[in-house]
Hints:
With 615 residues, the chain is of the alpha/beta class. Strands 10-11-14-17-18-19-20-21 form an eight-stranded parallel β-sheet, covered by helices on one side. A six-stranded antiparallel β-sheet has the order 22-24-25-30-27-28.
Amino acid sequence: MSDKSTAHADWDSRIGKPSDNRITGVGELPPPGGLLAVGGTGHVLLDWEPVEGALGYLVHRADRADGPYEPLDHLGGDVLAVPHPPYADTLAEPGRDYYYKVATWSDGGAGQQSGTVTGRPRAAGDTPAPVAVAVDASATPVALPPVWNRMIGAEHFSLLLWDEPGPGGSDVAAEYAESLGIVRDELGVRTVRAHGTFLPETVAVGPDGSFDFTGLDAVYDRFLATGLKPVVELSFMPRELTADPDYTVFAYQAQVSVPAEWERWGDLCRDLTVHLQDRYGRDEVAGWEFEVWNEANLEVFWNGTQDDYHRLYEIAVTAVKGVDERIRVGGPSSAAAGWVGALLEHCRQHDVPVDFVSTHTYGNAPLDFRPMTRGFAEATGRAEPEILWTEWGVTPTHFHPVSDSVFAAPFVLRGMRSALDSADCLAYWVASDQFEELGWPPRLFHGGFGLLTVGNLRKPRFWALRLLTLLQGGRIPAVATGDGAQALVECLATRVDDASSVDVLLWNGTLDQSKIGGSAALDRTTTVTVSGLEPGTAHSVTSHRVDEEHGNIQAVWNAMGGGDWPDAGQWEALRAADRLPDEDLGTHRADADGRLTLTVDLPNPGIRHLHVARG
């Protein structure tokens, strides 16, 4: 590791240096093979053979065989490529023929397209289309990676000390702290990422250039009292260090300019690390992640170039690891899955540490970056970086109605299931609607990013994560077949080691945000068969549901007349309704072959959790 005096002596000579692209230049990937299109009820189901090295796939559609072919936009924003097959096109209209091609997706974007297939959706019938879910309880359970609760996002931590009335007359600091306790206790969250480590209320710069972290101490003391750990986002720039102090973002005017003197950025990162160690202990801080900046690939968050970001990153990681090599540092913390390959390539060429790659995406399941992280490890001999999606959600748009909707609940489960094998963390953005980036919430249900409303009512997205947390034991095989299976209807199953209970989580959702209000054509009747049980044994079955009529606190508010903010009596009624009760489905006996079968309705959007307990 170079010291401060030599780490950047040759920086200017690096700018524009050609890269041999060992990480990202894997050659043009072949197109997917075996593309199939099957007309289903309310959709066309597309499937294809995965391509080694692909980060994802981009589905194209045309109204005629000769095109033009355009990428399918499911209206969620950000990256349109999906990480794996199958894919359900629910934008297609019944009775019409559509033509499809699929392209591989790499760090450079869409590659070669497959051949063409044709599909035609069917119209809905009198009863919902059938799907079957087969669960093998005889299989050996394997650990279910907790990608959903390793980390969560939150508004800047200084809200823990907010002393002014908040939206709807709320106590911002108390509710913010309570929200962190709720996600800790009910979702099992362990770490929290928030912007603004270097906001004016947390870091002051003295006349002599020294850094005063008194404000940060008060904020971190309050945060650490929750029992959670911080992800230290090294952002934004103290005003005194900026090259352009008028370049700001958000209602709280965060400074997002490049530094006037780059070495001062290194001083800040180094002094912060030393200070945190002195206050909270070297071993404690060694267990935290340090992430460099936020979404520098967007002009709104950074007025420098990509090379400038690499310089920012390299200075930061040099400073932090110069204090303690054990601290895990990563980036690029980018929007829309960008700049990951470029950072890995920079770190490979210049022998710069990168313990994890972090990036963000919204409105889709996350891409699979393992080909690049594995390529980095092979090219450098270093450990493979972890893959941390440090922001993820149903939409990147503030005040969007989808955020309060049931639609978002199965979306969350689709993303989390997809990430189980491809990521180390998928952090939902954010915990609470106590959030001021583009202005405070104007009403209770305003389309806020939070899993919890102002007042900490649980939205359908919260219940989706809660049901993941209720899965007991290890993962066992669960496969859906039928109309829209594995693309609309998906499933997970677990059992405890002694096979005394099995949990089955199934959901019905689409990426297509034109269906926020639901779609009767996409409703399904689902038959769940659990095999591998002891023949003849009795099992009690309980259920949880999330749909328009269950786990939907906005519907409760609308039934009360809606409006901007509840009065005292309405708050009391909303809190009484803020729960997901057990439903007793009775006792069922395994047949002579050790199989237990249940049939349940599964609307779109909707979730079912079944707990099957012996005895």
